[in-house]
Amino acid sequence: MNKSLASHGQIIWALFVTRTKEFYRDRGALLWSMLLPICIVAAIAIAFSGKGQELFRVGVYQSGTALISEKLLEQPFVETVNYDNFEKALVRVRHHQLDLLLAADQPGKYWINETSVKGIAAEKLLLAQLDPIRKGGADTEWSRQLVSGQQIRYVDWVIPGVLGMNVMFGALFGIGFVIVRYRKNGVLKRLQVTPVTPLEFLTAQVLSRLLVMMITAAVVYIGCDLFLNFVMLGNYLLLALVAVLGIFAMITLALIIASRTASEELANGLLNFAAFPMLLLSEVWFSLDNAPAWLQAVSQCFPLTHMVQAARDIMMSGAGFVEVSHHLLVMTLMSGVFLAVAAYLFRWNER
Amino acid sequence: MNPILEVRHLKKQFAELTAVDDISFQIQPGTCFGLLGPNGAGKTTTIEMIEGLTEPTGGEILYQGKPRDQRFKMEAGIQFQSTSVMDKLAVIEILKLFHSLYSKRSDLNALIQTCELQSLLPQKATKLSGGQKQRLMFALALINDPQIVFLDEPTTGLDPQSRRNLWGMIERIKAQGKTVLLTTHYMDEAEILCDTLVIVDRGKIIAQGTPQELLKQHFDHFYVSLDRADFESYLPHWPEAVNESHDVIEIQSQSVEATLQQLQQHQVNLRSLRVRNPTLEDLFLKLTGHSLRE
Fold first, then answer.
1. What digits encode the pLDDT tens for the residues B100-113?
2. How far is B100 from chain A (nearest CA, A)?
């Protein structure tokens, strides 16, 4: 008495509609999931709308390979950021996130964005600091390299992170708590004695949550854009694809956490255990450019990192499919592994 | 006739506790089979092993002569002792959801009539009373037009009217020829509904048969009871066995007529006199030495 594909589809559809109805009828949760990120972004916009701190950020490419204007970099009002990737550093200059860039392998050159006031100021400071070196016999002539690009405010930079964070919490807690609650109050037990298979049940939950999170993310995106008019240089469809894969990866991660327990307290702890490292290390609020290499490597293990980095590349640099394809691939692979583990661990009952 | 369900030497061990200890029985198609016993006797563990929710430690369960498979899931209707459905859905939405999960289905309108759910259809399941919720759960158990229906303590916690209401529904599905496996700790329920039953205590079957057979087999007397105040002075001289409780004295009478004659001879005040037949609770007490509700 094997089920046909149509009856699999019918069961998944029925459970999908049910779960989606349950969500949109929970008006409080629905409203809060959309209002919270807008409030956060508004607060950030207000907080950073005033005069920025008087600090120059100077990027140094391949810092260890040659002496680069040590005097400039030793100034207390200069923050140095080291880069191994020259292109990445140039993007930072383009977006005004770096005021000036030096490269050890290209002596005598520096890069600034002419539209950046702080960039011009940093240039003057550099030349003033370098003068003694030149006078001391250095044979290098310093030449200005121009980088053009729209200024990226912190708000522009943080938007993909905040959207990603909202999606992460919505995906993890939204699906995690529902499954644990279903297990605790006996809904899963009731479904277990029907012809519904774990895979049908999980698929319906994932699809429903994916739809809800995509709609929520779109509403939040539009809300933030109306409010802040943030930068979006890339393709919307590609951004949507990043969102789908990122949400899918985080939902499947939540399925692992919710695969067995019937304790909401334990689930809460486990979900926070998954959420907070991502919140801190996935470049939601701050860049890890200056962080130790091992920490950057750890951050690459989180789906949120890939989602935020890909979204940021698309929104701030107009990156295309090829440029973000490695993020897409990693998120897809993570989703596959997480789903397989969740399906293996899943139990209808706590026992 | 071949049994629709057969359980052979079923056993369930939880760490140190043997919840079900070598239970065997057969259920004939179209009958109502009762598992009667006090709380903790192993009834729910037994029924959940049959339903496929709990893995037995040992033994065998056969549905229509074969080990259970996907067909059993399609043909069994199950009502749990306590369970829940989705919070935000109306009764009609829940019915439609479960209806869509099966390939073989009951007529939904007829089911709504049978379970008296017409007026409850737009209500959220969370807003239903205990009796209304049990009617909904009963409807879900029947939604796939099952061959066999498992009802685990279906009337526990219900008021007398709701209980009788549910008994009526069970009678109606029995009349449709469906097989029912009912667990209960209410002996009146078992006596009224069950064609055959097993009495379970501490994981073991202690009696098995039809209610009438069991009572006939274990009792040859009636109970005549009087208030202690009306009978206490005659108690030392009374020749038959009696059961004493705080307020009532119960005479185990071989012949009601003879006992009444004796009482009249002793000029006992008969204003509190009551006569009753032995019940399954009496049987349980006799077999185990403790009552069903302990």
1. 999 889 999 999 98
2. 7
